[in-house]
Amino acid sequence: MSGGMSDVLAEHLHVYNSVNGIELKTAKGRGAYIKDIFLSDVYMENVHRGIKATGQFTNHPDDNYDPNALPIVAGISFSDIVGVNITTAGVFSGIDESPFTSICLSNVSLTSSYDPSSSWMCAYVEGSSVNVLPEPCPELQVSWPSPSTDCFIFLNPNSQVAAL
């Protein structure tokens, strides 16, 4: 990702026998942004990592990139996600100088036969969660004032929504 990605709606997804169920990736030197993304109604089975968002991607198209360009990753919502036989529920690995912000998890259930206490790994990320099993890392445990509130984003009403 170098040019930016925003106002994306992805729903009704089925993922089977995969390394990653949902993956967003960027890196220092990429700049731009990943923002206002809404993923919902996802079913995954036999997946190594249910959700992965990383700022540690190392590939660049050539050597002429600005190593100081920092991407912005914000406003990402994951809602109504069910996973069966998931090894690691989630990995959120932001960038020290540009943490991932406004990450929102709502109604996410990712089951596995592995140790649930080590199923989320987080660094340089902040966000909220409600109704998430196994319990996410502390950086994603901020709750809303009302436990019945779902996380959401407002997609730009002028955006074109494409079927994925």
Describe the structure.
By secondary structure, the chain is an all-beta fold. It has one domain. It has no helices and six strands. Strands 1, 2, 3, 4, 5 and 6 form a six-stranded parallel sheet that branches. The radius of gyration is 15 Å and the shape is globular. Residues 145-149 and 159-164 have low confidence and may be disordered.
Short description:
InterPro entries: GH28_Enzymes, Glyco_hydro_28, Pectin_lyas_fold, Pectin_lyase_fold/virulence. The chain is mostly beta strands. Helices cover 0% and strands 54% of the residues.
Features:
164 residues; mainly beta; six-stranded parallel sheet; globular; disordered C terminus
Distance between the termini: 17 Å
What Rg is obtained from the alpha carbons, in whole angstroms? 15 Å
Structural class: mainly beta
Number of strands: 6
The largest pleated sheet is described as: 6 strands, parallel
Write down the domain tally: 1
* Net shape: globular
How much of the sequence lies in strands comes to: over 45%
Low-confidence stretches: 145-149, 159-164
The SSE string, one letter per element, is: EEEEEE
The amount of helix comes to under 10%
Mean pLDDT: 84
Summarize the SSE layout with pairings.
Blueprint: E1 5-25, E2 33-54, E3 72-93, E4 100-110, E5 120-123, E6 125-133
Parallel strand pairs: 1-2, 2-3, 3-4, 3-5, 4-6
Pfam families: Glyco_hydro_28 (PF00295)
Keywords: Glycosidase, Hydrolase
GO molecular function: hydrolase activity, acting on glycosyl bonds
